[in-house]
Amino acid sequence: MTLSRTNFDFMKQNPERRPKIVADNIRKIREFRNYTQEYIAMKLNISQNAYSKLELGYSKISIDRLFQIAELLEVDAGELVSYESAELLQLFKSPLNRTMGQQRP
């Protein structure tokens, strides 16, 4: 995914919302994939509590951690930083992703 000009402008003008947008996108995609917080935390080698803080936007996410999470969630890292929820919904509605969203650990 490439960041649209609208998305870029929004993120530039609203720096205080960036962490919450990223955290919300991670949570939404994790839930869509039917992954638990415990499962993602285990894969990241962190506690469930530490992962929960990432998802709630209480802890900052390093660029390395962002890419690890994107890989686990099977999305491009750009999907995690996009505020354009319509694009995320389109991603989830595609037939391939619908089957990928079936029960996971």
Report on the structure:
It contains eight helices and no strands. By secondary structure, the protein is an all-alpha fold. It has a single domain (5-100), classed as lambda repressor-like DNA-binding domains (434 Repressor (Amino-terminal Domain), Orthogonal Bundle). It is globular, with a radius of gyration of 13 Å.
Question: What is the structure about, briefly put?
Answer:
This protein has 105 residues and is mainly alpha-helical.
Using only C-alpha atoms, the radius of gyration works out to: 13 Å
Q: Number of DSSP strands?
A: 0
N-end to C-end Cα span: 27 Å
CATH homologous superfamily - what is it?
Answer: lambda repressor-like DNA-binding domains
- In CATH, the architecture is Orthogonal Bundle
As for the CATH topology, it is 434 Repressor (Amino-terminal Domain)
Could you give a short account of the major beta sheet? none
Q: What is the general shape?
A: globular
**CATH top level assignment:** Mainly Alpha
Helical content (DSSP H or I, runs of 4+) = 55-70%
Mean of pLDDT: 79
Number of helices: 8
Low-confidence stretches: none
Question: What is the strand content?
Answer: under 5%
What is the total domain count?
1
Quickly give the structural class: mainly alpha
- Along the chain, the helix and strand elements come as HHHHHHHH
What is the subunit organization of this protein?
A: single chain
